[in-house]
Amino acid sequence: MARRDRSGYGLGIATFLVYLFLYAPIAVLVVFSFNRSRLSGRWRGLTGEWYATLASNRQIFDSLLNSLLVGLVVTAVCVVLGTLAAVALARGRVRGQPGLDAIIYTPLLIPEIVMAVALVIFFSLLKMQLSLTTVIIAHTTFCISYVIIVVGARLAGMDRSVEEAAMDLGANEWRTFLRVTLPATAPGILSAALLVFTTSFDDYLITSFVAGVRSTTLPLQIYSMLKRGITPEINAVSTIILAATIPLVYIAQRLERGAMKLRTAFAGFAFVVLLMAAPIVARSWSSAANEPQLNIYCWSTYISPRIVRGFESKFHCHVNYDLYDSNEALLAKLQGGNVDYDLVIPSDYMVQILIQQHLLARLDKSRLPNVWANVNPRFLNLPFDPHNDYSVPYAWGTTGLAYRADLVHEDVTSWDALFDPRFSGHILLLDDMREVFGMALKKLGYSLNTTNPDEIRQARDLLMRQKPLVKGYNNSNFEQDLEDGDAWLAQAYNGNLTFAMRDEPNIKYVIPKEGCTISVDCACIPLQAPHKELAEEFINYFHRPEVAAEFINDCGFNTPNPAAAQFVERWIRDEPAIFPAPASLDRCEFMRDVGPIIALYDRYWTEIKAR
Amino acid sequence: MEQVINFFRRRPALQTAALLAGSLLCLVGFFVLPLAYLLGVSFARRSPYGTVEWMLGLANYARAFQPLYLEIYWRSLWMALATTALCILLGYPVAYTIARRVPPRWKSALLLLAVIPFWTSFLIRTYAWMVILRTEGVANTVLLDLHLIHEPLRLLYTPLAVFIGLVYGELPFMILPLYVALEKIDPSLLEAAKDLGASGRRAFWKVTLPLSRAGLVAGTILVFIPSVGAFITPDLLGGARTMMVGNLIQNQFAMVRDQPFGSAVAFLLTFVVLALLALTLRTAQRSAREIL
Questions:
Q1: Where does B97-135 have alpha helices with state H?
Q2: 8 Å CB contact between A406 and A468
Q3: Closest approach of chain A CAs to the CA of B187, in angstroms?
Q4: Is A476 an 8 Å CB contact of chain B?
Q5: Domain final residue pick, A173, A196, A229
Q6: Does A122 contact B123 at a Cβ distance shorter than 8 Å?
């Protein structure tokens, strides 16, 4: 008996520790949602302001509603279909069982990106408009297997004699299923439902490919916000979601105790769903009104709510925007041809690809007077679109070298610092193949668009030798590593550093003397855009000096519109990382699509990363 | 209703088909078909513009077997295996406690509590781990304050951080199926074992563990498979210094725009893992038969 008690203690402690493990990061994010610092690496005092800014953020609430709706519908569909299938598989002698098993297991196995690409191609073949419906279909497809597997595990080896007894006592199959099989399977169904909801609610990659106009879900929204550094605002969203789950735990507990009837719980649940669905339905009705719509698909860091509101009130229209964080996601969607975006913001080399694939509409230049009046000629008539027939520059930046002046103790002017053994273990590179090779090629004195295999090989050898010094490759939150002093030197996109440099003045940024990448992201109109004229109006509006300045102030990236500078907040205007000396830009080079030789880059990149 | 039931009662095969119809429609319609298209792509080749050129051949598969790539597959499989083992080690006691030790009225609540952390975004959780594991992070601060260590440990961008992240992300997928299987075991079987003189430990090895096999298998599948393809966690917590097979595939689709080679690697991976699973399942079944 004593033995049993001891093992009981052991189990209890182990369980407690695992729960501690599960909640450790949760505690961190809740605490940091009250942090005064914008980049939440360090504690800078208590504040509730993030919850206040959140309350006025329409975009977040819309995306939360979308996510809840998708999650609940997907859970309901998956649970019903999956349970039925599990019952059939457990009972019936199914012919071709191994084949079925393969079909059931493969969705878990196929890398998400593959499934995402397959689905996008498929939806476009079926001419299905990308929308919340396609998101729901995609989620159902990859979640249904969870139900079949988990419920199947419950049914496996279940004692069938009880069911037979029920039948002998005169219950028909249906009654037996409802009264005997289903209750016995309930824990399995509950577990499966939890898994499905969790998976759907948290899915980013597939959703980002199959979502269409106005179907941004919470993970998509959060990812886009993260690109500006993990602000406490995001932690605040998570904290609110967590707080909202407390009643759920309470209900579950009451249910188990029998203090609440299943029917009551279900009715309450249905009520909540209706309550949540109402604003979505209302929104789709209101948008059906005659107000013109503009659908923007842009970089997650490139939208300022102020500009959107300003445009809406001036042009009496409604602006919807969805966000991406890779040019390739944009390409995939435009290739599909089944999504109605009016305005997209691809990067320079992607503009070239989009033009080649005939996915862009010609711009009516006469409707864009602000562009021709205000945009710096340096950014016009560039090789990827020699006459600006299809694209207008929107924002620009450089990929240079950031460092902590207080840790490095010297002025850095050259890429050589990234190869200096004194800084070993404190060097960070971007996790971006072209940028890393571009850096090495520039250091060697070559073009970063070289197609000469010998030069590319020299760059590889250089990077191979450098690898032992490198702490890591990071292109999502390198600014945090710098701010926290985990990295002393980092290859960096300048725009991502803007707000980090305000918080930590010791972060410096240089365009190395060997040169680096300069990139420009452009406003383009897809070929089948339904509201082309409104999109042109938006581009023209954006290039008003005071509007372009709002973009710089809110997003931290520079625009190719020098007239904006006078309206930019002083601390940004004085920051050479964002407003560099024009002469330093002469050392920079635009990145271009290098064609088939990319395969060689990829091979070498794999070699560098393989060991 | 009665007519429907009678109709199906006489045709059991049709009944099975009807039950399976919804799931199959979904899986075949929106999974198998799109995937079949990509299977075709995996035999094609990349055009100079990064689109698919329908010149069919086995070149992609031959390339996927080069030693450079084998090294990457091996590392991914090994990490997935270790993650699965750690998940079983951590998940089993939890599932066992919830299923068999706590009062029934707390079961659902505890189960929910195990899942709720995952209703925050995956990336936010990973970033929270980064805050914990940094040189000046929460973990080091606590350890230093407790005088357990004298200088900060390097935690972030290490294999340890990668395992913490992977196990953290997959743990509920082990706990839930295990709970489902353990909850089902008839307590009288354990009492019978005790009455026949088995020690607690022996009863566990001879009765509980074999009877929870279905859950163990389901959990292993749910954890092992996604771990093989995982790459965002290794990238963020491990510093992306080494490539996983997930990175390799992702790069082909995103950066290089070589869909044919990316598809070939993906299908190769799928095939190998399915074969491994089939093998494991068969051995598991055989050993289970021996025990019984």
A1: 107-115, 122-133
A2: no
A3: 14
A4: yes
A5: A229
A6: no
**The one-letter amino acid at A242:** L
Buried b (16+ CB within 10 A) or exposed e, B227-248: bbbbbbbbbbbbbbbbbbbbbb
In a domain, B48, yes or no: no
Q: Is A162 on the interface with B (CB under 8 A)?
A: no
The answer to whether B254 contacts A328, with C-beta atoms less than 8 Å apart, is yes
Residues B149-185 pLDDT 10s? 888 888 888 889 999 999 999 998 899 889 988 888 8
What contacts A449, CB < 8 A, 6 or more positions away? A589, A591, A592, A594
Contact list, B136 vs chain A (CB under 8 Å): 42, 484-486
Pairing of strands A470-473, B45-46: unpaired
Q: In CATH, what number is assigned to the domain containing residue A482?
A: 3.40.190.10
Are B19 and A87 a contacting pair at CB < 8 A?
yes
Domain of A485, in residue numbers: 397-518+591-610
Kindly determine whether residue B130 and residue A609, on different chains, have CB atoms separated by under 8 Å: no
Instruction: Give the B window 9-28 contacts with A, CB below 8 Å.
Output: 9, 12-13, 15-17, 19-20, 22-24, 26-28
- The count of other CB atoms within 10 Å of the CB of residue B167 is 23
Cβ burial A257-288 (10 Å sphere, 16+ → b, else e): eeebeeeeeeeeeeeeeeeeeeebeeeeeeee
CA dist., res. A195 & res. B19, Å (int): 22
Q: What pTM was computed for the model?
A: 0.84
Spatial neighbors of A24 by CB under 8 A, at least 6 apart, are B132
ipTM entry = 0.86
Residue A65, pLDDT > 80, answer yes
Q: Which of B112, B161, B115 is CA-nearest to residue B140?
A: B161
Distance from the B82 Cα atom to the nearest Cα atom in chain A, whole angstroms: 17
Residues 6+ apart with CB under 8 A from A138: A115, A116, A119, A206, A207, A210, B30
What's the gap in Å between the CA of A424 and the closest CA on chain B? Answer: 14
Domain membership flag for residue A243: no
Residue type, B37: Y
Task: Give just the sign of the alpha carbon dihedral A557, A563, A567, A568.
Answer: positive
Give the range of the structural domain holding residue B11, as residue numbers without chain letter.
1-41
What is the rounded distance in angstroms from the CA atom of residue A144 to the CA atom of residue A80?
9
On the CB side of A25, CA atoms within 13 Å amount to: 25
Closest to A442 measured CA to CA, from A518, A351, A347, A350: A518
Residue B43 is which amino acid? F
Q: Of A229, A249, A271, at which residue does a domain stop?
A: A229
CATH classification of the domain holding B212: 1.10.3720.10
- Given CB atoms, is A94 within the 8 Å cutoff of chain B? yes
The span from the CA of A530 to the CA of B157, in Å, is 47
Residue A88 has its nearest CB partner, among B19, B199, B243, at B19
- Residue of chain A whose alpha carbon sits nearest to that of B17: A88
CA distance A81 to B21: 8
Together in a domain, A193 and A66: yes
Q: Do B128 and A28 touch (CB under 8 A)?
A: yes
Q: Is B280 on the interface with A (CB under 8 A)?
A: no
What CA–CA distances, in Å, run from B113 to A16, A606, B218?
12, 41, 21
Q: What's the pLDDT tens digit per position in A497-551?
A: 998 898 889 999 999 999 999 999 999 999 989 999 999 999 999 999 999 999 9
Q: Coil, helix or strand for A193?
A: helix
Same domain, A98 and A223: yes
Give tens-digit pLDDT for A450-478. Answer: 999 999 999 999 999 999 999 999 888 88
Under 8 Å CB pairs connecting chains A and B tally to: 378
CA A183 remoteness from chain centre: 40
